[in-house]
Amino acid sequence: MIRHPEQLAPSLASGSAAAGRLMSTDVIVAILLLAASISPLAAQVTTAPTLGPAPTLVLPAVERAVLPNGITLLVSRNAEVPIVEGRLIIDGGARLQGVAPGLASLAAGALMEGAGGRTGVQLAEEIDLLGARIGAGASWENFTVSVRAPKRTIDPALSLMADVALRPNFASADVKRLRDLRLVGFLTARDRPGSVASKVFYRNVFPAGHPFHGEIVGDSASVATFDSAAVRRLWSSAIDPHRATFIVTGDVTLAEARAWVTKHFGNWIAPVHPPTKPAIATIAAPPHPSTRVVLVDKPGAAQSVIWIGAPGASRTSPDYPAIELMNTILGGSFSSRLNDFLREQLGYTYGANSRFEWSPVPGAFIASAQVRTNVTDSSLAVFFREFKRIQTEPITATELERGKAYIVLGALDNYETAGQVAGAISSSVMFGRPLAAISREYAKIELLTTAEVQRAADDYFDPARMTVVVVGDLAKIRAGIEKLNLGPVEVQTY
Amino acid sequence: MTRPSTLDHYGVSTLIRSPWRLAGALLALGGLSRLPAQVVHVPVTVDTLPNGLRVLIHEDQSSPIVTVNTWFDVGSANEIPGRTGLAHLFEHLMFMGSQHAPYPQFDRLLEAAGANNNASTANDRTDYFEAGPVHALPLMLWLDADRMGWFLPVMDAKKVDAQRDIVKNERRESVENQPYGLVEDYEPGMLFPPGHPYSWPVIGSMADLSAASLEDVRDFFRHYYAPDNAVIAVVGAVRRDSVLKLISTYFGAIPRGPGVTHPTPSQPRLAADTMVTLEDRVQVPQLTYDFESVRAWAPDDEALKVASYILTGAKNSRLTQRLVYVDQSASQVSAFANDEHLAGYFEILTRARPGHGLPELQAAIDAELQRLAKDGPTEREMQQARNSMESRILGGMETIQGKANRLNQYYIETGNPDGFQKDIDRLRAVTATDVQRVVRQYLLGPRAIISVVPIGKAATPGVAAQRRVVP
Is residue A82 part of a domain? Predict the structure, then answer.
């Protein structure tokens, strides 16, 4: 049992970013001075200590090289632990799947089901014998094949990774088994009210044809039609060293990384006729003309799952720092207004939060909570009261400063491990923002004013144009929700 | 329920240092595919304040961050029947303010310093942590000290009621409104006899949560939340001397507790299979097998962990390969060697693919366990398990939070906080014969079997229908 669900501090560099370097001599001195100033024999200390100067956030340095076959190499060294992380990022991802939702994700999964003539089972055995991990996945932006290994086995691990990325088997039986397991996954997702709320939310907030309308894993109607030929076609249209970035972090130098990547990926030849790479679909996703409520029945449910939101903002928006700070105060930290009211003051939920999903095209703004059935309507009222309040009332100076510290100083432990740094660099590649630019965004956060935060609330969400999804026991909650007059109410099935 | 409360006051004097002596023996290793040996070592000091508070410090200057991780030697095992869930409810109350840091200062002050925090409760311990920029260390320690020393003056029934509601919501989220969540309610009672400290779930029952009173909370605090029942690990860009000064200043005046007597039940053994079939709002059936095993660090503990890897740790593991790849009767299967402080149990959990039933899965699992017991694992399987599991132990050393947690765990379980190498050594020492033996000894006998089936399907032929429970 944990005290509260993780309230993730926003990380500017990624969804789960990565390593400030040490500067801490002055910090140590400050602590020593502070300690010395208090008598060690004090009976009790009745006031909170005054803290010394905060450490400075310094994002990890990244070195860059381009290999002869076109691969861009990005290396960040941190030799504290003898572990090396690698990420092969291939631009394209689910944009390449056209009208076959879930195909890119299935192809990425199928990479791990056999490569270089080994079956998936043999591959897993060899990876574990090296004490390594290899994984593959797809996003709307790109494909990622990742490796993590102790430095002493990174060379053979990279050899296996090259087989996975460049020489997958895509055997028919393997693709079929993986496909069928995904179909089981769609079936069992119906049992989880949170999954149902998520699926219904996206399909209502983003129009058909928009990448975020469905899930990256697709849906059962689409996925049921896939076979190894489809997967193979997609992968051969994706794989091109000119679209590839290879990130290596951890106990590694640029020279070592260059030698390893050249050895295992240097023979990867660019196709003579590079396949076209469509830009991510930019179907307009305007917010709904008015707030509306979508209900999904879950008879007997002990709680109602609430998702409220609308299309949000692009990660490339110049207002990104202000939006993140605004959201931290609204629902992005334990002390945020949504969690404070809905959990701490009212006891309606185990945790309430809000977030902006960041991507090069505007993702969703989402506020959510699971609440006790008999306070579903009251909880919705609190959500909307807080949406309105953050737009109409200035935030307090205390909230402003707390939010800034929580984001900027909180980022210090986002860059601790090789994996975190690799993740941060990977996001920076996806967003076209080098870590230096991300440092400037942190600096910008420290300068934001109350008015700028309020303007972000005004500009980037509109309580009058929200989509509200509630999954719960409709016999008990429907009447109360209708009385709120949030907007038209409809019942959907999933 | 009342507990003795002797609040003798102990003054602060000097710190007693008991540095841990490290013995790192380099193992001579052979075998082509064995990972090259390396000895891992996390330099850590152990100090004890006169009031009994134990302090573990590990300096890691690689990032300007720090974490304070406090383990109280109390968990749901210390509860009494009728008050299940109290340890965890109490954990929530530790954030409701103390005399000099009234609610909601704890979270507000930490966030304003860029730090985060959380806590967790298990069978045998309750863990609290803060993490963030290193300049926030004095604040983290002061807040922790104030709630360890000056919690009672500001605790009231209103706060208990508020967190009681939140904990009930947490229970709804993880049990009542979670598919298959009911298993958590039944598993402890099937594995452990009535009265055994593990025979109820950590989250507790709704009825017991409703029954917990302000006086229960106060008694719980007086009994268990004393400096001599806690260990604080500080890990990060710090210097030991300054950390000890801060801790002495903030915690030194807190008196010792009355002393805690922990339950010491023996490891129970099931005499025969016990079975329950639960109906739930689910699409596919799920099967849980639970065997009695051994407590943490018992001689067979590590061999059982290796067995769990050989059964389901990778795609080529026995049960995964059989159920997911060959028979294709299951969408997933996983095995866990749960080793708690007082007892252990070995769990196998699988979910059927549509069109396949639990009897088929059960027969396949039984056959694979028999095969492993008969022939034992191959040397290659053993090497794979060792290398993969060793890599996982090393992964726990990458972050200050990972290290702080492990230092506390190793210290409380074994008396030596730098237990990383010992953990690796005992892993490397497990042989194929050991694995074969523990499979025979623990995984072929009586078990608790929990089936979860879609509503209306409890009468499926072959599925034991001892009890039919609908949430």
Answer: yes
**Domain CATH for A246:** 3.30.830.10
Last residue of a domain, one of A231, A248, A277: A277
pLDDT (tens digit per residue) in B175-215:
999 999 999 999 999 999 999 999 999 999 999 999 999 99
Where would I find the H helices in A38-146?
103-111, 120-129
Tell whether the torsion through CA atoms of B279, B283, B287 and B288 is positive or negative.
negative
Is A318 in the same domain as A416?
yes
Which of B34, B391, B394, B405 to mutate: most A Cβ within 10 Å?
B391
% of chain A residues with pLDDT over 90: 82
CA distance A197 to chain B (A): 13
The whole-number pLDDT of residue B36 equals 55
Dist CA B61 CA B30 (whole Å): 35
Beta-bridge partners for B335: B348
Determine the distance in angstroms separating the CA of A388 from the nearest CA of chain B, rounded to an integer.
23
Residues 384-443 (A) with a CB less than 8 A from some CB of B: 398, 401-402, 405-406, 408-410, 412-413, 415-419
State how far the Cα of A224 lies from the Cα of A100, in Å rounded to an integer: 11
ipTM of the complex: 0.91
Q: CA A400 to CA B90: how far, in whole Å?
A: 32
Q: Give the residue numbers spanning the domain of A415.
A: 288-491
Number of domains in chain A: 2
pLDDT in tens, A233-268: 999 999 999 999 999 999 999 999 999 999 999 999
CA distance A3 to B314: 32
Domains and CATH numbers, chain B: 1-37 (no CATH), 45-251 (3.30.830.10), 274-454 (3.30.830.10)
Tell me the per-residue pLDDT of A141-154, one tens digit each, with 9 for 90 and over.
999 999 999 999 99
Q: What is the mean pLDDT of residues A69-78?
A: 96
